[in-house]
Amino acid sequence: MPCWYELSWRNGLIVRLHADSIRHINNIPADDPDINLFTEQFGFTEWSGDLGADWGFEHSFTCRGVSGDFVEYEAVIPCVREYKPCDMCNGSGRNPFSMHDDIPCMFCENGRASVINMRSAFPVSASLSFLFARLRYPQFATLSLVPQLMAIDAAAFEGSGGGSVSGVYGIELAGYLRSRPHGRMPEIIAAMRSAHEKLFMRIDACHESGFKAQLSDGGALVIDCPGNATGISPDFGSMKPGRGYEFVEHNMDTPMHQLQILAGLAALHDLARAAIKDDAAKQ
Asked: In 10 A of CB 66, how many CB atoms?
C-alpha cells in the first residue's frame, strides 16, 4: 500500500505524515470523544489538533516542516527524572546513620534524591496512541510512491500494559528482515539507548544489558528495553514466507517503555527504507 506515515530516528523520534493523510485527520476538535477520554484520564490542560503547527496534548509534537510529500513532527521525549531534597539526610548529603561527616548518604546524590515523574511522559504517549489509532486502518489512499512499512498500535493508560506497542510489519519490511544476516541489530539498540538517556538522563549499570535487538530465522525480530523481559516479539503464528507479520508486546507497562521501543522501531524503519530504496535504484 502507498505510504501514509513513517517513523524515523534522528536523535529524536520523528513522525512523518503524508500530505494526503493530513487532509483526512487535520483539525480534530478538543471535544472529540477520544480526545475527551485522554483529557479526563490524565488531566491534560491543552489539545492542539492543527497539524500545520505544534500538535497533540500539551503541544508534545513539534512541527519540523515539510519534506517532499510529508510533514515532519518530532515527538518530544521528556526527561522523567526529577530531583528533590533527600528526606533521609535533609539535603545534607551526609550519611544519617554515621558519626563521621565524610560518609555520603546512601539514599541520594549529594543531598538530592532522584524520583521518576512518569506523568510527564503521558502527553506524548497519549498523542502517539491517538495518532496511531486514527491511522491504523485508513479509509483513504495516498499518492506516495513508497510503500507503508509498518502500522502501529500504542496504548496510553496507567497500569499493566499501559505503555504497550504492537502492530504489523508490511511485506517489504519483513522481506528486508529476512534478507539480513542473523544476530544483533546495533542501530536499533543505539536508538533505544539514546531514548533511555533522554528519559532518565543516564543509563544505570543495572540497565546496560537490557537493550536487545536480535534477528533470527525467518526474519523474526525481538526488541527489548530495560525491564522485565520488556519489549516486542513476533506473533509467530502470523509469520508466513513472502508475507508481512504481526508483532506483540510483553510487559510494556509505562510510557517510558513505549518511547524506547518506538525509538527502536523508528531506527528499524530508517534501515529498511534505505535498503529498499537502494535495491530499487539497482534495478
From this structure: 11
- If you ran DSSP here, which 8-state letter would residue 194 be given? H
Q: Contact 51/71 with Cβ under 8 angstroms?
A: yes
- Which own/partner contact pairs does 159-162 have at CB distance under 8 Å and 24+ positions apart? 159/253, 160/253, 161/249, 161/252, 161/253, 162/253, 162/254, 162/255
Which pLDDT score, from 0 to 100, does residue 101 have? 80
How many whole angstroms separate alpha carbon 87 and alpha carbon 93?
10
pLDDT tens-place string over residues 242-283: 999 999 999 999 999 999 999 999 999 999 999 998 766 665
Q: Are 252 and 237 in contact (CB under 8 A)?
A: no
Is residue 15 within 8 A of residue 7, CB to CB? The reply is yes
Percent above pLDDT 70 for the chain:
98
Spatial separation of the C-alpha atoms in residues 154 and 250, rounded to whole Å: 13
Distance CA 174, CA 185 (A): 15
pTM summary value: 0.92
Residue 211 phi/psi, 5-degree rounding, is -95, 120
Pinpoint the alpha helices (H) of the chain: 19-25, 33-42, 122-135, 171-179, 186-200, 255-282
Distance CA 68, CA 58 (A): 27
Q: What sign does the CA torsion over 174, 179, 185, 191 have?
A: negative
Cα–Cα distance between 259 and 60 in angstroms, integer? 13
Q: Three cell numbers at 56?
A: 497533540
- Cell numbers for 139: 479509509
The whole-angstrom separation of Cα 89 and Cα 82 is 18
pLDDT tens per residue, range 79-118: 999 999 999 898 888 898 888 888 999 888 888 998 999 9
Closest to 46 in 3D by CA, of 151, 134, 123, 117:
123
